[in-house]
Design a protein that fits this description.
Elements: E1 5-9, H1 14-25, E2 29-34, H2 37-51, E3 56-60, H3 68-78, E4 85-88, H4 103-131, E5 135-139, H5 152-174, E6 180-184, H6 193-196, H7 211-223, E7 228-229, H8 232-244, H9 247-258
Parallel strand pairs: 1-2, 1-4, 2-3, 4-5, 5-6, 6-7
Helix pairs in contact: 1-7, 3-4, 4-5
Protein name: SDR family oxidoreductase
InterPro entries: KR_dom, NAD(P)-bd_dom_sf, Sc_DH/Rdtase_CS, SDR_fam
Keywords: Oxidoreductase
């Protein structure tokens, strides 16, 4: 045990779980945060099976609830845990025309993808800056770079994450802090995102990236103090396209990726 602790949200599956694997492999104590205790317990079982005596703490919290970030911080403080690495991975999407989708789902999405991310960052970053050490990984998306019809709110939350992370990165440099913040912008990845977002029948879901590869590249960038990670060629193409093409063209391209292929948009 290297006596460092990583806290990972969205840690029960997908990229979040694979990032937890990276930390556990390197002998970090891991704090796993996700909505459902049973899924966290299964994630912990798999980590114990692979890494033996890794120390794991489970915090089942629903990050769509505004008070969750304070509760998570209070619990880690109560247990005397210093969070050396924070990973804000929790997030979900919804597919459909904005006029047809459920506003309650979208407001919950904004809370999870953006508000809770900001709140957790505020709480743990202050401690890191006081110690002048620590790392934060913000999980964005290639959707951060372009307006995305059929996933309008999701893409907007990821654009927020990108803008927020880049601004705070600059602030940390201005403060001459040793704390680093990295933003991971994965392409469509083989997780349960598409099922939750009702996007299984889209071109974006056809050839997803491997979650383990995406997580490893993000982890390496975090450990190297990099500002950004664009895992896979697909993510790099998305990024450079956003620099070259106007938003109207990007929106048209995204629409072809996110519009259902063989059935009408869900109502």
């Amino acid at each position: 045990m290297n006596d460092q602790t990583a806290l990972i949200t969205g840690a029960s599956s997908g990229i979040g779980f694979e990032l937890a694997r990276c930390f556990a492999r390197d002998d970090y104590r891991v704090v796993l945060v996700a909505r459902h205790l049973t899924e966290l317990q299964e994630a912990a079982r798999l980590l114990h099976q692979e890494f033996g005596g890794v120390e794991i703490m489970l915090l089942p919290h629903d990050l769509s609830r505004p008070e969750s970030a304070e509760h998570i911080y209070a619990e880690t403080s109560r247990r005397g845990l210093q969070i050396d690495a924070l990973v804000n991975d929790a997030g979900f999407g919804e597919t459909g025309y904005f006029t047809d989708t459920d506003i309650r789902t979208e407001l919950g999405m904004i809370q999870v993808n953006a508000a809770s991310l900001v709140h957790l960052t505020k709480l743990y970053l202050r401690d890191m800056v006081d110690r002048n050490e620590g790392r934060i990984l913000q999980v964005g998306s290639v959707a951060s770079f372009a307006p995305s019809p059929c996933q309008a709110v999701y893409a907007a939350t990821k654009a927020f994450v990108l803008s927020f992370a880049e601004a705070v990165q600059h602030e940390l440099r201005q403060q001459k802090s040793a704390v680093t913040m990295t933003i991971l912008c994965p392409p469509p990845t083989d997780t349960n995102f598409f099922q939750v977002a009702h996007a299984e029948n889209t071109r974006a879901a056809a050839r997803p990236a491997d979650a383990r590869l995406v997580a490893q590249e993000g982890y390496d960038a975090l450990m190297n103090g990099a500002a950004r990670s664009l895992p896979t060629l697909s993510a790099k193409v998305n990024f450079f396209s956003s620099l070259l093409l106007p938003d109207s063209v990007l929106a048209t391209l995204m629409n072809t990726q996110l519009h259902p292929l063989e059935k009408e948009l869900r109502h």
